[in-house]
Amino acid sequence: MPELPEVDALRGFLDDHLVGKEIAKVLPVAISVLKTYDPPLTAVEGTEVTAVHRHGKFLDIVTTGGLHLVFHLARAGWLQWKDVLPSGVPRPGKGPLALRTALTGGDGFDLTEAGTTKRLAVYLVRDPSEVPGIARLGPDPLADGFGRDAFAGLLAGERRQIKGALRDQSLIAGIGNAYSDEILHAAKMSPYKLTSKLTEDEITGLYEAMRTTLTDAVDRSHGLAAGNLKSEKKSGLRVHGRTGEPCPVCGDTIREVSFHDSSLQYCPTCQTGGKPLADRRLSRLLK
Length: 287
Known about the structure:
The chain is α+β, with helices and mostly antiparallel strands. It is built from eight helices and ten strands. The protein has helices at residues 4-18, 132-135, 148-156, 162-167, 177-186, 200-221, 229-236, 268-271; strands at residues 23-28, 49-55, 58-63, 68-72, 77-82, 97-103, 108-113, 121-125, 255-258, 263-266. The strands form three sheets. Strands 1-6-7-5 form a four-stranded antiparallel beta sheet, with no helix packed on it. Strands 2-3-4-8 form a four-stranded antiparallel beta sheet, with helices on one face. A hairpin with a 4-residue loop joins strand 6 and strand 7.
């Protein structure tokens, strides 16, 4: 799933490629992709793109018509930029194409989604706060005004595992499964540690690990073409997706805990005092 660093890099890429250009057509191909119907997609045709913003994992294309074309790539979605879009109207089918946005110059982008679970979502709204997922977002972890004390304040009312808290978009926007693993590894903290058990020093360490991990990932991703962002993300991860490999910090073997629809990776030596986590839902440390 694209997370804050990749989505922010896509924002920068689209800002460079879209701003000042006119939208010719927005063509939904997959029935499930469009989540709003008023205003209709035709309302954005003929408008000029003035800015591209990011809200958590949402991208927001702003136009002169006062409209916002907003989309969320979900787990298996992606954006493919094309300097020359194929001619003709794409037909609905079993392929990955979900939506095509064509510019008057002949270029544009496709939104695609792999797999059979279709969660990619597109909205055309007058205000981004009309999108339910944006309306309930927590603060952005890289915002200038989001300091250590603000982070501590968010955690103060929580009593749950820190892994889940970091992934909760209504608490903190933009962090998903991969970067929560990376942040907790950098903070040397178990994913099962309860937020209510964090000391002041641990909160400080977690905040610093979060800011550093995300900032470094954003810096690595910015300036890359959209097609190169997935490989950059994978190459920059230290523990997530690296089960069985040596930890780059201590050399211990990276382990995994699997759930019904996801998994987490961690280093026992760095994060759990050398003890492996049992590989089952809501596990505790093995005695």
